[in-house]
């Protein structure tokens, strides 16, 4: 892979399953050594995009290159240069951890001595040496995910695709997986990561693509995306959900945009320019309406705010349609 070329390049890619258009002209790129995150809810097209980049699906149109190779024309050559970890651990639970990694080495046709050495190295790297000879069915969820990631690295791929790698993990295991991913890029691997966890994108990504309905609707670093919706957010929690629209009317006079109303959490939020006395003025206006305020606060915007402003909905999971590659 040439150092001056993107590790991953996706240009105007479209994919349809029957009447459903899963990807609608997706564009993105990953530079060598970067962690790039596709952020969006299930159903946005993230998994479909990853399956195309990993040669498991053919795009209907558009161009995709990974490690300098075309994913359609050079699919066979490319598969030895990429690693893929899906949403669910693809390991054999009746084999031991060591046997799983050994099996992947043999599938990649590595020499027996090289497979043995690589297996030992990966077991140590992912803190699985003590459990190496136990059946995987005895592993915790976090251990299975680490083993699955280790299996995708048996051939030391220059490009790694991680499709929601921390789904179902407890907070401690998720933090451990983040450290592993950071370590991979420090060693030179280019990583494309999909997630519906806003904090995950904030913590890991060098670059973020916000995906919704099969398109990239925003692109930039976490700080750049947050700056698009203003420096600070004024957020009010109402005691009575019936007062939400009243509160929104009040905030229209103070905000830099249209207030967002979250009926489920009884919250109203708007981007504002902070100034002395702002909160006092807002409270005085709300008191005059007779509305009951439970909480009022100023805070920095989050990626959740970015997603709400850009899409009109939060990054909550819905079913994504993915066709099994034939």
Order of helices and strands: EEEHEEHEHHHEHEHEEHEHEEHEH
Rounded to the nearest angstrom, the distance between the terminal CA atoms is 28 Å
Q: How many E strands?
A: 14
Shape: elongated
Architecture of the largest domain in CATH? 3-Layer(aba) Sandwich
**Major beta sheet, strand line-up:** 6-7-8-3-9-10
Any low-confidence stretches, pLDDT <50, length ≥5?
A: 317-326
Class by helix and strand content? alpha/beta
| Count of folded domains | 2
Helix content: 25-40%
Pfam families: ABC_tran, DrrA1-3_C
Protein name: Daunorubicin resistance protein DrrA family ABC transporter ATP-binding protein
Keywords: Antibiotic resistance, ATP-binding, Cell membrane, Membrane, Nucleotide-binding, Translocase, Transport
InterPro entries: AAA+_ATPase (IPR003593), ABC_transporter-like_ATP-bd (IPR003439), ABC_transporter-like_CS (IPR017871), ABC_transporter_ATP-binding (IPR050763), DrrA (IPR005894), DrrA1/2-like_C (IPR025302), P-loop_NTPase (IPR027417)
Write the topology of this structure.
Elements: E1 8-17, E2 20-30, E3 35-39, H1 46-53, E4 61-66, E5 69-70, H2 75-78, E6 82-85, H3 97-107, H4 112-125, H5 141-152, E7 159-163, H6 171-186, E8 190-195, H7 198-204, E9 207-212, E10 215-220, H8 222-227, E11 232-238, H9 244-252, E12 260-262, E13 267-272, H10 278-289, E14 293-299, H11 303-311
Parallel strand pairs: 3-8, 3-9, 6-7, 7-8
Antiparallel strand pairs: 1-2, 1-4, 4-5, 9-10, 11-13, 11-14, 12-13
Helix pairs in contact: 3-4, 3-5, 9-10
Main location: membrane
GO molecular function: ATP binding
InterPro entries: AAA+_ATPase, ABC_transporter-like_ATP-bd, ABC_transporter-like_CS, ABC_transporter_ATP-binding, DrrA, DrrA1/2-like_C, P-loop_NTPase
